[in-house]
Structure formats: structure tokens, C-alpha cells
Task: structure prediction
Amino acid sequence: MTVLLDRGCNTNTAHSAPVLRERGQREVFCGLTGIVWLHRKMQDAFFLIVGSRTCAHLMQSAAGVMIFAEPRFATAIIEERDLAGLADANDELDKTVQRLLARRPDIKLLFLVGSCPSEVIKLDLSRAAQRLSKNYSPKVRILNYSGSGIETTFTQGEDACLASLVPELPSDDSSNPSLLVVGALADVVEDQFRRLFEQLGVGPVRFFPSGSADNLPAVGPNTHMLLAQPFLSETARLLEERGAKRLSAPFPLGVEGTRAWLKAAASAWRVSDTKFESVIEMPRARAEKALERYRNTLSGKSIFFFPDSQLEIPLARFLSRELKMSLTEVGTPYLHKDHLEQELAMLPQDIQLSEGQDVDKQLDRCRAERPDLSVCGLGLANPLEAEGLTTKWAIELVFTPIQGFEQAGDLAELFARPLRRRMRLAV
Ligand code: SF4
Result:
């Protein structure tokens, strides 16, 4: 385990407070979790996890559902004889895919999703995807990515999935600019943003991932890319290699973040300030009103973020600036300083930023702070609650629509609810 203290002055961020870097025991979900929201978004895709019974159980409990009539994810279980090398795992996988695609002609895009067990036995899913594609392409595209928990955190599953799709995106050679919004958003949020962009005259706008494999967004040198999620570093890198240009912006959380995010696109399209302010006036006013009712509950309360979703820094910015919460430690699994440049510049200077995790040391720091609210993974929530600390599950922040003006109140509610529950219990 190593601990590095990095002074921000060697970076391009305006945040100059030291960043505590830790490498040690971590308490996070693995990248398979992303399938829970991705399978809802990508309507004709299927996620075949090549993993163990543990992976299957994780998926069923994370999804909060039992498998019903026509699921869009499943686990091909690696049995003991596969692990012992007694069976040819590739043959077994080919047969499983054949049975699946014969039964499910609606599948247009099949992801073979690697796991810790498939990585341990060194099952090469990239070769498997290429081999299977020869049989099923063009009717079914077969891709692969890793959701293994060996070195990843749970939102990296979406990054890995979208990164595997980037080479499949058609080329856009048009000389007219287009906007590509990158990162899975709930349909309701996507519709709201689409309407706002239309009113601003920004477009054409495409969303990635799209709802259908037949409608993948095109990308090219005149594509402006606006990240909707802060955990898509590999996807963004690959899109930049395809010519897309990233618009630097905070993330669309809260009134301020949403306004600045929309403004980044509006500025690229040279929308006048007057038009911009008039288009956002009503939704912005609604969002500000929605936040008002949470200020009493949240203002002045201290909050500690364990590293989990990679949303921590944008959330900390929203909670400190718009709801006047007091930030103690803001931990994040990875600190992508380019993508978070504007977020970091908006954070107070006196907070502790940390990257990575050495969970026991971080728990000690949290206990010493005794924050009013701790945002953490499920594994830490129960022990902290037992010690009298109030917690918020980070995973809920990814499963809930929180982006945009209309969701600003819902986002504040997610933090206010555990505090109200604690107050009721204390009475
Ligand atoms: S991929 Fe690894 S961490 Fe995730 S459920 Fe399977 S065994 Fe566990």
C-alpha cells in the first residue's frame, strides 16, 4: 500500500488543496453492476456475463428483480470443470450463445461481459467475440468488455461497455457540427435535454448509448462531445481518436451544473446570452424552487464521501454551493483532472480530496470527523449505521435520474431523506 500526497500545483486544475492518494483494500461493487442501468437503456442489447454463481447473485440483487419472461442479461456460469480445464470453455460458450440467439431473435447486440472468474482462467472473450461474430454478423453484433471487480469500480462497467461500442459507430463526414451527449441517461432526462437543445437551436443532437443497435450515433471531426457522466474516460479518449472534440463543462447536476453544461453547448453553437437565458428561465426557476425546500434540512450539515461512483466531486460541488453543506473528505476512485477541471475549480479550497482507497484508514478518518452524512457503498453502510453514523448508498445516485433542472429537487431529496430518517429515529 502506498500513500501519496499530491499538491495540485502540478496539474491544470484551479484546486490547489493536496490530494491524498491511497492504494489499499477497497470496498466497491464491480463493473457488472452497470448492466443494471445499461440493459434498460439499450433495448435490443443482451449482456451475457461469463462468470460464476456469485456474479449471477450480484446481478439479481443489484437489479432488485428476479429473472422474468424475457430478460436482457444472464450469466453463463463457469463450472468447476471449466476452472479445472476439463472442459473447453470456448466450446461451452459457443453453444450457450447459439442457444441464446436461436431463442431470442430480437437480440441485435450481444455483449460478452468478462468477470473475475473468466479473467482468472484467462478466457479470451475478445477472440470469442470475433469468432462468434463471423457466424452471426451482420444480424447480431457481438462485442466484449470486462466487468471484473479485480481492478475496477462499478461505474467503470459503463465506460468499458461504451468504449467497446465506439469502433462500431458510423463515421460522420458532414461539415456541419453535431452534438454527441455521452453517458447513459434515464429516458425522461434525455427527452428534457433534447427539448432544451432544440429550443436553443443546438443540433443535430445524438445520445450515446442510443436505445437501438440499428441507430448508433455517428461520430467525426465535426462532432462536439458533451459528457453527461464523469466516469467515461476511456470512452471519451476513443471518441477523441475518432475526431470528436470534448466541450469542457461541469456535469449537469443541480441548477448551476446543468446551466453550465447546457451553456457549453450553446456557446459552441454561438447561441446568444439572451436566447440562452430565456430558454432556460422556466426550468431553472422550477429547479431553484425545488431546492429551496431542502435548504433547512441540508444547510450546514457535514458530509463525507467514500470513493465509489465517481460522481463524488460533482455531487460535492452541488451540495456545497447550492445547499450549503459542509464538505469534509471527498473521496473518488479516480480523479480525471481534465474531465473534472471545472468541477474542481468550483470546490472550496479547504476540503480533503482523496483518490483511491485504503478502507480502514478512511474509516478511521470518517469516525474522527463524525460527519452528519456519509456517502458510501452498501458494504460500509451497515457498519457505519451501527456506529451511529447516517449513510447514503452511493449506488442509488446512479440508479436514480438526477441530471438536469427537473431532477435537481430529487437529487437534494436523496441526501435529505437519510437525515430526516435519523432525526425521526432520534426523537
Ligand atoms: S465479477 Fe468478480 S467481483 Fe463481480 S460479482 Fe463476479 S466475482 Fe464478484
In short: The chain has a mean pLDDT of 90. The longest helix spans residues 273-298. Residues 30, 32, 51-52, 54-55, 58, 115-116, 147-149 surround iron/sulfur cluster (CB under 6 Å). DSSP finds 17 helices and 15 strands in the chain.
